[in-house]
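Sat 14:20. Reprocessing the chain from the morning session after the first attempt stalled halfway. Input below, unchanged.
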Amino acid sequence: MTNAPTGGYDPPRPSPLPGRSLLLWPRPRAHAVLALVLVPVLAACTAGASRPSASGSSPSAPPSVGGSLTIYSGRSEPLVGPIIERFATETGIEVRVNYAGTSELAATILEEGDASPADVYFSQDGGALGALAAEDRLAVLPDDILARVDERFRSPDGQWVGISGRARVVAYDSRVLSEADLPESILDFTDPAWKGRIGWAPSNASLQTFVTALRVLEGEEAARAWLEGIQANAPRVYEGNSQALEGVAAGEIEVAFINHYYLLEALAQQGDDYPVRNRFLPGGDPGSLVNVAGAAILTTAGNPDAAEAFLEFLLTEESQAYFAEETFEYPLVDGVPADDRLTPLSEIESPNIDLSDLSDLQGTLDLMQEAGVF
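Finished this time. Tokens:
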């Protein structure tokens, strides 16, 4: 029996070692490395200028903010490091980043209590944010920040805001299956007809968050029955979503339960002949859960003005375009388009759920262990 991880990175690129810290000192705008990292984002901009944000304001913090900012990031450095570095460069704010697993950092914040040095918590899912909100560790955000994102993708109590979205999908082998061959619900993959044809990554945080959503939406026993039914169908186990996707492409399995953007990255690298496609399940099915990477400001933040400026920066058109173009996630600010190969976010029939309720990771891990997954 292997030990189940308690949540980790879910990036489309390799992540650094957990717990790595990075100190970002303000750099000149022409810093060569930064320019190379952000070329895809800056290509549409006038040299040396910034596009306005969705609210019409500059993405840079007011000069009066100053000081330093400490970010605890459950999103990996390769994924969000370029955006954080650009914020430091444009604002002159000294930024310190602690990169580790989303759940690990949430536990650290709770352990540190009022002594936590963190100003901002940048999470890969809404559940961890909900867990901190339930412990009164998160401040209520200004209305002008919250208003930039649809209410589905922010805290109902205003304590966190979604930055980018990711949808659960069924990735399928288009050489042997069409959408019409797939069930209408993720629950139907327990049918014995799917035995030996399924792949998944149960140690992956996004799969675990989906199981948590299944518990919230369908109840504990229904979630247990689904896990046991999938186990009975002898699923092939992969280390992560990208490996599961490659398993479909290699013909090892016919379907995999993953996040949408892994396929988009593969298509970008290998072209449209790549033999896998995504199925967004209809009818508010749990298998079409749309989760968010979100950010919040701690109640104990030493520099809340810089923290607010950072959240505002993440919700500018330019930063949102970065997530759309570089990570293939869904931008959450109106007017910023997602990749045109994706089903529009407004057309995904995702289940109606408060993402803050996806906080009981330990209960999910216990259930998965009881069902024989680990």
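The chain is about 35% helix and 15% strand.
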